[in-house]
């Protein structure tokens, strides 16, 4: 039988939203435990440069993640990144989070597990995953120094990662199925000024080929249906994200796309359970909106826990 531990608050996920919630909750005097099955800092740590976070004209993603983590730890937040979560049961009356080592019974839970990159919808995605199909330029870009590579996507992530990859590759080809981008105009302008980035508007990735590793991309015109091959060594996908809600789908209400529904107080359908950051259904998913979510959830959790103690 695993030891049972009671804590005030468990935060599942240590991205900007989860860590911000931890900072506010710990400052409010709550015994706070953050559980993280992946890297602390979330997707921010994988961003090469961040230029839209207040207080920093420009900062590396890993540096910003380190600063937020250090602030939370200095205040007394406990972060456990090695004890994987096996089971979660979230009810109005009782909340249970079971890991490999413990059974936790928190008074409140904040879900901040974020989202994973969407897989490229091509037949050979799984065959070439890690062999020319990638989803993180910071992680895998160095393997393609002085090579020709492609980026698929139309938002800020695709544009920003293209500029990072352009520092390594001989050429970056952005394959864009429409004649416009959804990213910020300033970021697009910077991409257009980067000499070794080519934008192919109105083309779509159909598949990739190669013996063991990718050596060609097959693309099709979205206007003429023309198909052609491009010699290259890698394709990096940035076509959106999918929420990591597998642990919670039996208890919390989800949208058809799998995101957790909350009100503006970050409250889910379960009392004492909150959702923040990219896991939550909302229009804008930015670092600044994530930390705002974390702030609100921590303050509401503190109110909820205090009310429960007074009963």
TrEMBL record:
InterPro entries: FAD/NAD-bd_sf, FAD/NAD-binding_dom, Ferredoxin-NADP_redctase_2, Pyr_nucl-diS_OxRdtase_2_AS. Residues 8-294 form the FAD/NAD(P)-binding domain. Transmembrane segments: none annotated. The keyword Flavoprotein applies. One of its GO terms (molecular function) is oxidoreductase activity, acting on a sulfur group of donors, NAD(P) as acceptor. It comes from the Bacteria. Keywords: Disulfide bond, FAD, Flavoprotein, Oxidoreductase, Redox-active center. This is FAD-dependent oxidoreductase. It comes from Holtiella tumoricola.
